[in-house]
């Protein structure tokens, strides 16, 4: 699989740095969890993971919107969903002609949240261009040649982490979350953890909703992943300092996500 970073900024986009968004592409295997003799490669699959502000433009550097197999949304905050609004305009009011509705997998009532901005007349239109699958707990599905599994994480609102497997490798994406057992459990089968670092310092009390660099290191170590990709860094966190702080508690490879960078996972 190949992961391309579309954006990482929080809580608002910066020049050359959109908010959260990623493109995951892979072939995978039909009917097999491993590469057995006679197994056939599935057609290439493209999934837009989180649609933060500015990511639609970046997505089109690598694939066409109408060629997506699915869109997966971790939670309803605007810095992870706002470009679904302009994606809707593109699919409904431009010359784009997708062969079928684009599947959108997201938290419950995501379509209603979008319609609150677009207006009540948009509810029908949203369902004409998107096929919504609602997440309300643990779940899984297959998109093209990729297996997706998700589970709830701790962000103060309905929020989910995601693990994607192509039959030979797997990657886990934290979404936005405080450290939690469910994220560790989801990442245990993955070699790579794409982990948010939304805090530069620990929140006071029990109100944490993001990882610090030290939290990210502990999560990666507990899950046993080989590589951690740091993303969605707090705006007051120096990237080099974040890498150093993770290195103090995690012995694996550490990568800093930057828009436009692509990784084989």
From TrEMBL:
InterPro entries: Metallo-B-lactamas, RibonucZ/Hydroxyglut_hydro. Pfam families: Lactamase_B_2. Residues 47-232 form the Metallo-beta-lactamase domain. It comes from the Bacteria. This is Ribonuclease BN (tRNA processing enzyme).
